[in-house]
Amino acid sequence: VNKYLRYLEMCTLKILEIIDLLFCPDDNSSIILNDNELICATCKREFSVKENIIDMRPKNKININYDDKKIVYSDYYESVLKDGNGAQFGLSSKSVPEGFIVETFNQLELHLKPNSIVCDIGAATGDYSVLLAKKCKLMIHCDLDLNGLLVAQKKAIQEKVNNILFFRCD
């Protein structure tokens, strides 16, 4: 319980830095922070924090209009949205060579300053976000796949990186 409360306190401080960037995935209204909970200013929907992940999934899935890829991606999206069981990408799954990650990291690192707030969208298992978090003020790690988020959290703990907010979002 104490560990969770400490996380909430730390999380709250980080959220205060980015609260103006957050919006409700259902109606695009602003988000307010009230007693360590994120709440939509209009619809009053509360966004939970579970397993140290802020869950901001939309109530309804988005409409995917990619003709030939629609069926395949739609099934994948439905599975990840509901269960969090997507295919992992990156070094953890060996779907990307380590050299590609290192070279991309080196290019991204050139643009970072110690006071930067960085958002990694589709961050998967954290190959970039955990490394980049060491070079910036705050990392916002966003992915829909719960399993990928959990792997990234484990990496952050192993690397002793504590300036990452984990969002499960579309």
List strands and helices in order, with pairings.
Layout: H1 2-18, E1 31-34, E2 37-40, E3 46-47, E4 49-50, E5 53-56, H2 67-83, H3 98-109, E6 117-121, H4 129-133, E7 138-143, H5 146-158, E8 164-169
Parallel strand pairs: 5-8, 6-7, 7-8
Antiparallel strand pairs: 1-2, 2-3, 4-5
Give a structural overview:
This protein has helices at 2-18, 67-83, 98-109, 129-133, 146-158; strands spanning 31-34, 37-40, 46-47, 49-50, 53-56, 117-121, 138-143, 164-169. With 170 residues, the chain is α/β, with parallel strands linked by helices. The chain has a 5-stranded mixed beta sheet with strand order 4-5-8-7-6, with helices on both faces. The chain starts with a helix and ends with a strand. The mean pLDDT is 78.
State Rg.
16 Å
Q: What's the SSE pattern? A: HEEEEEHHEHEHE
Derived from helix and strand composition plus strand pairing, the structural class reads alpha/beta
Mean pLDDT: 78
Beginning-to-end CA distance, first to last residue: 29 Å
Order of strands side by side in the largest beta sheet?
4-5-8-7-6
In this structure, how is the largest beta sheet organized? 5 strands, mixed
Shape: globular
Counted beta strands: 8
Strand content: 15-25%
Fraction of residues in helices?
25-40%
Count, helices? 5
Q: Uncertain segments of ≥5 residues (pLDDT<50)?
A: none
What oligomeric state do these chains adopt? Answer: single chain
